[in-house]
From TrEMBL:
Keywords: Hydrolase. InterPro entries: Isochorismatase-like_dom, Isochorismatase-like_hydrls, Isochorismatase-like_sf. This is Nicotinamidase-related amidase. One of its GO terms (molecular function) is hydrolase activity. The lineage of its organism: Bacteria, Pseudomonadati, Pseudomonadota, Betaproteobacteria, Burkholderiales. Residues 11-177 form the Isochorismatase-like domain. It comes from the Bacteria. It comes from Paraburkholderia susongensis. Pfam families: Isochorismatase.
Length: 187
């Protein structure tokens, strides 16, 4: 874990902290992930930096060995958690695939804001977070991953993403490290 710097044009992207996802059994307590994500949200908003809240309302079509969800989600499944304190200035991205960039306006929004770096947090590490990190990296964005502000449905998948995949896509660190670097860079 080695965070070096934060760009001046940075955005926070919080993935799938919604009722239906946070209610699932995860490797780390969802309440801790929400608490750390809220700390990031508060800091980014305080500094007037772009905040993107992502939710998921469906899945990509196609066959998989594990099957896929084919019906409607229960009422309230996609509702963002009230703890996130969604603001009018937050950009909402509703996705129907794993990654927040596919078939959404996220890339255009970040370009419009002049963003050169994203900080990622959310659930699930190996699914929504990793897919979004891969695409951000491919777009040429600097990627920072707040690894203690994310979890997965599977502990091994979380560990694999954090230890093997994320160091190849960006820089990893804790929420506190991101917050400290943000405060130093904005002082």
């Amino acid at each position: 874990m080695a965070l070096t710097t934060l760009d001046t044009q940075i955005a926070l992207v919080v993935i799938d902290l919604q009722r239906g996802i946070v209610a699932l059994p995860t490797a780390h307590p969802g309440s801790e992930i929400v608490e750390r994500s809220v700390a990031l949200l508060d800091a980014f908003r305080r500094h007037g930096l772009p905040v993107v809240l992502v939710n998921v309302t469906g899945g990509a079509p196609g066959r998989t060995d594990q099957g896929r969800h084919t019906g409607d989600f229960p009422a309230g499944f996609a509702d963002l958690l009230p703890e996130l304190k969604q603001q009018p200035s937050d950009h909402l991205v509703t996705k129907r695939t794993w990654g927040a960039f596919t078939n959404t306006d996220l890339a255009a929004y970040l370009r419009e804001q002049g963003v050169t770096q994203v900080v990622l947090a959310g659930i699930a590490t190996s699914i929504g977070v990793e897919s979004t990190a891969r695409f951000a990296n491919e777009l040429g964005l600097n990627v920072t991953l707040a690894v203690d502000a994310m979890t997965d449905l599977n502990a091994d998948a979380h560990t694999n993403s954090v230890t093997r995949i994320f160091p190849r896509l960006g820089e990893t660190g804790t929420t506190q490290e991101v917050l400290d670097l943000l405060e130093r860079s904005r002082a």
